[in-house]
Design a protein that fits this description.
mainly alpha
Length: about 180
């Protein structure tokens, strides 16, 4: 009968969706674990290297006090308001800036990967939710959701997760190499 044909189609579509979503979920979950561990590792490096961007507060204070003292000496001895210029505080070393840029980008990409992975898992969870509907209605709903997955490029987005993690890993290694190169 007609209802039996819809039931057979429903069974095949549900099985196909189960396998497709199971493979994607498995892949995403493995990448989420790696991204979480990698983010934790990069964070420890970022916390330590971020200190290199800060100027030495004591040296800045000594420099400012020296400048004030020389200005006062100049006014007392010359009696004029023209004050010689002194060097200003130094900026962080270029290596520290480059390393921090690479590591912050790496951390940002890794956390972006986590966000994308979580959103994809939510999409898949919603996609697999079948209500207690007649088979014909359930198949129409399934097809609408399937078309939505394709229209929003979910397979391509899922495929981009490892690429983002690889770029994050490369940036992390670039930062390490740059850091070690200057030692």
């Amino acid at each position: 009968t007609n209802e039996d044909a819809w039931g057979v189609l429903y069974k095949h579509a549900k099985n196909y969706d189960k396998n497709m979503c199971s493979d994607w979920k498995d892949e995403i979950e493995k990448h989420l674990v790696f991204a979480g561990l990698f983010s934790a590792a990069v964070t420890t490096f970022v916390v330590d290297s971020y200190k290199n961007l800060d100027t030495d507060q004591e040296a800045t204070m000594v420099q400012l006090l020296t400048r004030i003292s020389s200005q006062l000496d100049h006014i007392v001895t010359n009696g004029s308001n023209q004050i010689p210029s002194l060097p200003v505080a130094q900026s962080p070393p270029p290596t520290a800036i480059r390393v921090n840029i690479a590591w912050f980008l790496s951390l940002t990409l890794s956390l972006t990967t986590v966000l994308i992975g979580i959103i994809c898992l939510q999409w898949l969870r919603e996609y697999e939710r079948y209500g207690n509907q007649p088979h014909k209605d359930a198949l129409m709903l399934r097809q609408m959701r399937y078309d939505g997955l394709k229209m929003w490029y979910l397979p391509a987005i899922i495929s981009s997760i490892p690429v983002l993690l690889q770029i994050a890993l490369v940036l992390f290694f670039v930062g390490i190499i740059d850091q070690l190169w200057t030692l």
